[in-house]
């Protein structure tokens, strides 16, 4: 298993898919270290250690390369979520970018609204996202939301729900600033540590649950997803609304 994993790492490395390659190198090295511990043949141990040393050196070089890309504002990682895939709750997708220094978040999504009863989950999705921010490990103090107004009679309910979320967040020391735009189209989420995440479907990439008591209703990791693409960037400066 370790040999296959590092073989995959080398292939990804050659294809310049460095982030994925680094993960495979790290997993492969861990597996090979377990093999070394279980091997009694000293000659084999020596060969394994030589290879592990080579892979560790390459992994460190890739780490430095990725860090330089971040510093230069050139970092780009793409995640493809397949139709009906599970395991892509908000914590899974965002947690590695929510470092302790994150105190301010910008959310641009035109569909944080309730067009009709069947779309009520859009506002719940935003609430779930806010819950994730409150849990940490980041110390978020301000969330900026830019969205569009709901149509017709749904507008008053949209505003009412958002105001309720705003009040609830204030109980946790978090300020929610809400702005509306009739021309907003793009969907993106930015953190003040330089990370920017663009999701093709915004926060609404989960499928509607089959029922209020079906598996996946409460736990987004178990909720099937719509097919979408997630692009992650790192920039030196985060644009502010």
Automatic annotation (TrEMBL):
PANTHER family the UniProt entry points to: MIT DOMAIN-CONTAINING PROTEIN 1
Source organism superkingdom: Eukaryota
Residue ranges of domain MIT in the record: 1-71
Species this protein is from: Platysteira castanea
Protein name according to UniProt: MITD1 protein
């Amino acid at each position: 298993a370790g040999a296959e994993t590092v073989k995959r790492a080398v292939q990804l490395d050659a294809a310049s898919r460095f982030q994925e390659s680094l993960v495979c190198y790290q997993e492969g090295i861990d597996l090979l270290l377990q093999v070394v511990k279980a091997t009694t043949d000293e000659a084999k141990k020596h060969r394994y250690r030589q290879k592990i040393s080579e892979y560790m050196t390459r992994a460190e070089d890739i780490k430095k390369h990725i860090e330089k890309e971040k510093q230069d504002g050139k970092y780009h990682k793409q995640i493809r979520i397949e139709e009906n895939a599970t395991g892509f709750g908000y914590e899974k997708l965002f947690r590695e970018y929510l470092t302790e220094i994150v105190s301010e978040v910008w959310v641009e999504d035109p569909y944080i609204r309730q067009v009709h009863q069947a779309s009520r989950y859009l506002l719940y999705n935003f609430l779930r996202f806010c819950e994730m921010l409150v849990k940490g490990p980041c110390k978020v103090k301000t969330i900026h939301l830019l969205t569009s107004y709901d149509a017709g009679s749904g507008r008053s309910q949209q505003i009412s729900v958002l105001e309720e979320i705003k009040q609830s967040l204030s109980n946790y020391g978090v300020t929610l600033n809400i702005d509306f735009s009739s021309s907003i189209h793009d969907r993106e989420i930015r953190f003040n540590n330089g990370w920017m995440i663009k999701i093709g479907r915004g926060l609404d990439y989960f499928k509607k649950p089959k029922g209020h008591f079906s598996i996946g209703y409460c736990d987004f990791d178990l909720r099937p997803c719509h097919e979408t693409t997630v692009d992650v960037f790192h920039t030196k400066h985060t644009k502010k609304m």
